Fold this sequence. Notes:
alpha/beta, three-stranded antiparallel sheet, 52% helix, globular, binds adenosine monophosphate
Amino acid sequence: MRIILFGPPGSGKGTQAELVEKTYGFPKISTGDLLRQAVRDRTPLGQKAEKTLGQGKLVSDEIVEEMVRERIKDPDCQRGYVLDGFPRTVAQAKSLDRMDGRRKEIVIEIDIEVDTLIKRLLKRRICSRCGAIYNLELQPPRIEGQCDLCGGPVVERVDDRPDIIRERLRVYRDQTEKVKDFYLRRGVFKKVDGTGTVEEVFSQIKRLLDAELAQGEEAKTQR
Ligand code: AMP
């Protein structure tokens, strides 16, 4: 099964994708995480993408498509995977169909107001080593500045500055929202309310996934 978490920056896709991975064993594939890792490792791709990330603009379709194409070939993705931050353009959505078309899929939008997003993004911190996500108010690391999971330094993301946040929201409105129509037409688009606590949002996602997985089982036993 392919699970696509959809929503603007700051809606909680990354945090919820981590919970989906922990609960169901579907690996989280976050194109943002993969790109930030490439920047940290100073790979040729990372060096090419760094400026774009810092400006809050989208990296080229070809670059992210190639990253996803390679990642989903890994054996841990055979049963399924959860995508965070991909696809972000209609071209990417079409490309995903071409690279892995036959999979059962569900797209879950995390719906949230812009004011809440901005507040959350300003308080967001990430581990610069493993990418774990924190919020200074709601989910701070146990020891200030240090990742609970790997002990790495917990820092602000370069693109979580007010001017860059505005640009990312503009990019979302202009380019990514169209992806919604693409999946609405296909009848796989669902929505959850993203304003509650992490646990409240996850319980809505879990309900959708459990129903979807139960359907899959039913189809198998009828065969
Ligand atoms: P995220 O962590 O999902 O907020 O992504 C951080 C940044 O990585 C974005 O602002 C883009 O510059 C880049 N990025 C991540 N995913 C994509 C994608 N699917 N297409 C293009 N650029 C992306």
